[in-house]
Sequence to fold (443 residues):
Amino acid sequence: MRKAFGPLAAITGLMFAGAPFMVARAPYESSMGLVQKIFYFHVPSWFAMFTAIGVCGVASLFHLFKTSPRADRIAEAAGEIAVLFGLMGLVTGPLWGRKAWGVWWIWDAKLTIALLLEMTFISGILVRKYGGPGSDKLAAAVGIFGLAVVPFVYQAVNIWRTIHPLTSVVPTLPATMGGPFWFCVAAYMLLLVVLLMMRVNLGKRQAALDELYLAYED
Amino acid sequence: MFFRTAWLVLRKDVAIEAKSWEVLTTTLFFAVSCVLIFAFAFVKEGRPVEDAAAGILWIAIAFSGTLALGRTFERERYGETLRALLLAPAPRPALYVGKLMGMLALLGLAEMLLVPMVALMFQASLFSRPLLLVGLLAGGTIGFCAVGTLFAAMLVRARSRDVLLPILLYPIIIPVIIAGVRGTAALLGAEPDEPTAIMWIGILGAFDVVFVTLALWTFEPLMTE
Fold:
């Protein structure tokens, strides 16, 4: 994994450098025009967030039952990255909404889910920071429950009327829009992997440093 | 063994509570204060805003429930009794079930006063379909207490546990609040909307099953030091 990091980071960088050109060349959407182009960054950031939530939940389960520091580091990294991508979605969403719907925020189904999941994973970071010793297990519980709550939030808020575009638009995209879109999705997924590797490595070094301090004090 | 342990834990909690009535009285008082505060926010020219009663009822349940959870486990922590319970050669999930039953009994008692009060003060026809209302209240309270009891128990040994409990609990139980509020609001109109209320009861039931199972499963590793 270590060796793959450099090339992966380089590919991710190149893809993000190329993405604006792909997006610029994609056709205008008929009713929203230029504003719709934020879609190419807005939707992939949610894809990346849900992937990070899944990784965090599975790693949390593993840590809770097997007490593996490695799984704990992955869960911590994935939780923070989920918050990061969620933040990207929560910034790009209102920018789009302001132009397309005329308001920054509405209490629509998808927006509510997004905010709730963001809050859940921020609470995971807070418990790690302020929970004191043993908070890794507490954060693992938040990761597991955060993953388990996704279908319920989805179901509960989806029953309200929604003006947000449905997820079913993605497979029906014309090829001229689908190409840049899936390119951006791939770029975001690579970014997720690169960030995850960086954050896990950082956690590993922190743990090693803590051990050295302990050994020195003894 | 399992049910006996759960029963003993429940009986212990009831016996302690029956001596002082500390948690029940403070929880009830807090719930009534919540209702009062929201009454000032949601009453216009003497008439409550539409559907406000449903929201106020569930907010009062969630807020006072958090307070009760914190107090119940603070008592265990203060007497170091939770550690004693965990040391006992009893199945851990049974301890969870016992504590959960205690919380349910407590919140159930509080709701018996809270619901008529909200119905009277906000001229809400909460009792037009009593069975559906009981279904919503039971489903919502079980869901809230299932997650709340687990989180409050695992936070007993954490620092700043008072502030962490609502922080961790609220985002997870939002589906319960949504279902409770929407379901109760469906019962409030001149023509109670039964299918909607039943659908929300179904969602609450599914939530309860998933989260009670998850809590029973994770209680043991979470309470191991």
User: Anything to note?
Assistant: The longest helix of chain A spans residues 175-217. The two ends of chain A are 34 Å apart (CA to CA). The mean pLDDT of chain A is 85.
